[in-house]
Design a protein that fits this description.
It contains 12 helices and 12 strands. By secondary structure, it is α/β, with parallel strands linked by helices. It is elongated, with a radius of gyration of 24 Å.
Length: 374
């Protein structure tokens, strides 16, 4: 391990002898009694030396091995240290042009995952993950580009037809892509976001692509937000593949639910909950998701809203890949173009759905408290 002070943290002097790392109050850390020898020692914690070499340098500065060891331990406990060697190895998994682009993402991960070497391990896991996005419109293509820029190793967009003017957005297709095959243009958008050179082919995993770690359902017209198609949802549930519903429906952006098959509420739960509130909902939904006259002639999709939804959805995907629990699990998030507000709504598993029946303990077995939000 080559310890380094996290470069993402600012260093601010509170007074002549007190050094503060970071500015966000909840995560900021303070080092007191920083005299010249300690300040000089901190300058050496830059990732170029092994821990043993740092301790030797501390002795030469007059700290003594014990004090230098204590200081390093205090910095580590405070979440201020990272392993420069592990960070370099994680970035080395990516093509050289992408390594520089990923440096800010790696710095952010070091704050979210504070233990030394933890953030590089998360980035390495991202490099091995595959995400499939079904729907390459204004929202779906932007999600793919953001995920590729964030280090997800394989991002595939599945769609048919050709790019239309309503598919274009600053984070996805440029207007010059109008008329091109969506599958081709979307793949190139993902490669550009990852820093791939023009014409460069994406690296393929030996032995073929692994199964997706997550599928994003992002229909171009937003009609599948919450539910997608019944057949598609059931297929993903049976295969045990986590999936996230995303879309812009009229003036409302929707991210969620993110479904963990057998462990969280699913899209059918949302449909059944809406049915309980409005008995006509199944009939309306059939018209909305079909090819009949119920579909809007011109689907609404505000550019700023679509970009915000794509960014939020990509963040939730990353949180899931990184081992976290996004707020779209057992719920969904709404972004409104009318007031700019973001809201999180809770979703409970519906008793008529059955998606969690397999996780219910047998009669007479010990029961644990539900982990669903209340």
């Amino acid at each position: 391990m080559r310890p380094m002070l996290k470069p993402a943290l600012s260093r601010l002097w509170r007074d002549r002898d007190t050094l503060q790392f970071g500015t966000v109050r909840h995560h900021a850390r303070v080092v007191e009694d920083v005299g010249q020898p300690v300040a000089s020692f901190l300058d050496l914690v830059d990732g170029t030396r092994e821990r043993s070499a740092l301790l030797e340098a501390g002795e030469r500065l007059g700290l003594g091995g014990g004090l230098a060891e204590q200081l390093l331990g205090s910095l580590e406990e405070g979440g201020l240290l990272d392993d420069a060697e592990a960070a370099a190895e994680a970035l080395a998994r990516y093509p050289r042009p992408q390594q520089g682009l990923l440096a800010p993402d790696a710095a952010s991960l070091s704050l979210v995952h504070p233990a030394p070497g933890e953030a590089p391990a998360v980035l390495r896991a991202r490099s091995l993950a595959r995400v499939e996005i079904r729907g390459a419109g204004r929202v779906g293509t932007a999600i793919g580009a953001v995920l590729a820029a964030g280090g997800v190793g394989s991002v595939g967009l599945v769609d048919r037809g050709r790019v239309s003017a309503r598919d274009c957005s600053p984070a996805g297709y440029p207007p010059t892509d109008i008329g091109r095959l969506r599958s081709t243009a979307a793949r190139e958008a993902v490669h550009r976001a990852a820093g791939a050179a023009a014409g460069e082919r994406h690296r393929r995993t030996p032995g073929g692509e692994p199964p997706p770690a997550l599928v994003v359902l992002a229909p171009r017209d937003g009609s599948g937000a919450f539910t997608g198609t019944a057949a598609e949802s059931q297929q993903l549930m049976r295969a045990g593949v986590p999936h996230l519903y995303v879309g812009v429906l009229e003036h409302l952006g929707i991210v969620g639910p993110l479904v963990l098959p057998g462990a969280s509420a699913c899209g059918s739960c949302a449909t059944l909950a809406r049915r309980d509130e409005d008995e006509a909902w199944p009939r309306l939904l059939a018209q909305l998701t079909g090819d009949g006259p119920g579909r809007p002639r011109s689907a609404a999709c505000d550019s700023a809203l679509a970009t915000a939804v794509a960014g939020l959805a990509a963040l939730h995907v990353q949180l899931h890949l990184d081992g976290g629990r996004p707020p779209s699990v057992d719920g969904w998030c709404e972004l409104s173009a009318a007031d700019g507000m973001a809201r999180r709504l809770r979703l409970r598993s519906h008793p008529d759905c059955g998606c969690l029946w397999q996780s219910v303990p047998p009669q007479g077995a010990a029961r644990t408290e539900s982990t669903h939000p209340r």
